[in-house]
Structures are given as structure tokens and as C-alpha cells.
Design goal:
Helix 2 (28-69) runs antiparallel to helix 3 and helix 7 (148-158) packs antiparallel against helix 9 (175-192). The protein starts with 6 loop residues before the first helix and ends in a 10-residue tail after the last helix. The protein contains 15 helices and no strands. The protein is 76% helix and 0% strand. The chain is mainly alpha-helical and 323 residues long.
């Protein structure tokens, strides 16, 4: 039969086995030297890797610049992306690549890539910085390409209603660009709507154009576009509210006349008022004074000559043009 060994024998064996370890001591100089060499080696490897990544990043950036100069935008996007995979914190190149996507987006993937890049760039600026507003507007413009409703909502948050909007725009002129972007999106929506659904949206457009004319009082095109909106809105509500429709027509005429009054020598402004009067005048003898004024400023103006020729060819023209 197997019997368990005596406990004293086991204790003696363990003591004999552990004795060499109890007399072992650390070689501290060697330990310190090993640790120092390991640290130096790790730092050296890091420096070498950094230098190598810097060299590779510089090569990608050089190739990207060359592709951009040659107008090869797809290749430029690819090479800038490779550069940013190494130098993700380069704000300037991030913005350059985002601008390429913004200006030359060919598909939905380009739009989404531009949105991501602009979002990353926005994190580097405070909301009060001019650069922040520029980037935010481009980001919202790309957002609106994919999600128009979300873009409009973001612009509404960016353009809070104010009692004195002209003062707000004077304090931050770049907000006018945000207002223009919102108008553009609303006009796109209006174009896609059926006639019966346009009234509420056209009213909103009128309000934005009224803000824009206050923000840019020296731009006659805003006033003339507003005049056309007044007229179209009047046509849409004529049967429901003829009194308001009449007031809108009066506003339209005044807005068109104000544009000419502030820019009496602008041929485009004069021509637009003539076309407006041709479209909306109820008189059998429309006013041709704008055409005559254009020909005084530019006797060879082809648009004025063509319009005058068409007008004179009409039977009603004989009593409309002074001799």
C-alpha cells in the first residue's frame, strides 16, 4: 500500500529547493541600464516612425496639390483623404478638402463626405468666429441637398426672428448669406409644389425677401423679386381676400418703382420694370418710358430694341408711343 510521506521529509525538500532563491540579489545597475535603454529605444522608434509618417504625409500632400492644380478633382480628393488619414488634425487641409466636395460633389457620397469634413472643421472654431459662420453655411448647404427640411430647420435656428432684423444684419453681415440660403431652399420647395399648396410658402418667402431688402437696401434685384412675389401672391388669394390682394398689388408697384428710383441708370433694373408692366398692366397703352430711357443710356441695347420693335408691331402701339 502507498503511504503518505512523512511531513518532515516534505519540509526538508522545500527548504532545499528554495534556498538558492533566498540568497539571490538584484543587480540594480544592470536593471537601471536595461530600463533606460528600453525607454531610449522606444523613443527612438517613435521618432523614426514620426519622421517616416511626416515624409509620407508630405508626399501625399504634394501629390494632392499637383492633382488640384491639374484640375483632376477625383484624384485630388483621394490624395487629400490619404494625407488626412495621417494628419487628421490639419484644419486647413480638412477645410480645403471639404470645399472641393462642396464645389464639385458628384454623388451623395461626396455630399456626405463634405458634411463630415465641415463638421470636423467646425469643432475648431467658436460660434462667434467669422470662419465658423462660413463653414456652417456650407455645411448647411450640403445638408440641404440631402435633407432639405433639416437644412431649413437648422437655418431657422441660425436666423432667429428679431424686432429689428436690419440691426441684426448690420452687426453680423454674414447672416445675410444664411438668409439667402433659406430663400433659395424655399424657392426650390415652391417650384416643386402644386399651385394650391403654394400660398403659405409664398407668404414665408415674402417675409424673407422683405428682410433681405432691409439687409441689402442697395440691391435693386431684391426689391424687384419681391414685387413679383407680391403680384403672384395677390393672384393666389384674389378670390379669398380681394382687399389684401389689392394692397399686395400696390406694394408690388411701389417696390418696383423704388428699385428704379434708387438705380435710375441701371439698364437691367429699367428693363425688368418694363417687362413687369407689360405682364401686369391693365392699360391698353403700356408705358414705354423705361425702354426710351434705356435707349438714351445705350442706343444700341439689343434687348430694348427688340422689346420696342415687338411693342411697335402691336396694333395698340400707335397711340402708346409719343411722336
Amino acid at each position: 500500500d502507498l503511504t503518505s510521506p512523512d511531513s518532515s521529509v516534505v519540509d526538508d525538500a522545500i527548504s532545499e529547493w528554495a534556498q538558492p532563491f533566498s540568497t539571490w540579489t538584484w543587480n540594480r545597475p544592470l536593471l537601471y541600464a536595461t530600463v533606460i535603454l528600453a525607454v531610449i529605444g522606444a523613443a527612438g522608434c517613435a521618432v523614426i516612425l514620426r519622421m517616416r509618417s511626416d515624409r509620407i504625409a508630405s508626399q501625399w500632400l504634394l501629390l494632392a496639390d499637383r492633382a488640384e492644380d491639374e484640375g483632376d478633382w477625383e484624384l485630388a480628393k483621394n490624395r487629400f483623404s490619404r494625407y488626412l488619414s495621417i494628419r487628421r488634425d490639419d484644419v486647413e487641409i480638412t477645410r480645403r478638402l471639404a470645399d472641393i466636395h462642396y464645389a464639385r460633389a458628384n454623388n451623395i457620397d461626396d455630399v456626405r463626405a463634405g458634411m463630415r469634413l465641415y463638421s470636423r472643421s467646425l469643432q475648431q472654431y467658436a460660434p462667434t468666429d467669422d470662419e465658423y459662420i462660413d463653414l456652417k453655411l456650407k455645411h448647411l448647404a450640403m445638408l440641404a441637398r440631402v435633407y432639405p427640411t433639416a437644412g431649413l430647420t437648422a437655418l431657422d435656428d441660425m436666423l432667429p426672428s428679431a424686432e429689428n432684423p436690419d440691426q441684426v444684419f448690420r452687426q453680423n453681415p454674414k447672416l445675410v448669406q444664411a438668409l439667402r440660403l433659406r430663400i433659395y431652399l424655399l424657392e426650390r420647395q415652391l417650384f416643386a409644389m402644386s399651385q394650391g399648396d403654394q400660398i403659405a410658402l409664398r407668404q414665408r418667402l415674402i417675409e424673407d425677401y422683405e428682410l433681405l431688402t432691409k439687409a441689402e437696401p442697395d440691391n435693386p434685384l431684391n426689391s424687384q423679386k419681391l414685387a413679383l412675389l407680391y403680384r403672384r401672391h395677390a393672384e393666389g388669394i384674389e378670390s379669398d381676400d380681394p382687399q389684401v390682394a389689392t394692397q399686395l398689388r400696390q406694394k408690388a408697384d411701389k417696390s418696383m418703382d423704388d428699385a428704379v428710383e434708387t438705380h435710375p441708370k441701371d439698364i437691367d433694373v429699367l428693363l425688368r420694370r418694363f417687362e413687369y408692366r407689360q405682364s401686369y398692366s391693365r392699360s391698353m397703352h403700356p408705358d414705354t418710358s423705361d425702354l426710351q430711357r434705356i435707349l438714351e443710356l445705350d442706343p444700341d441695347n439689343p434687348q430694348a430694341l427688340l422689346n420696342l420693335a415687338i411693342f411697335l408691331a402691336e396694333p395698340r402701339a400707335n397711340s402708346a408711343v409719343p411722336s
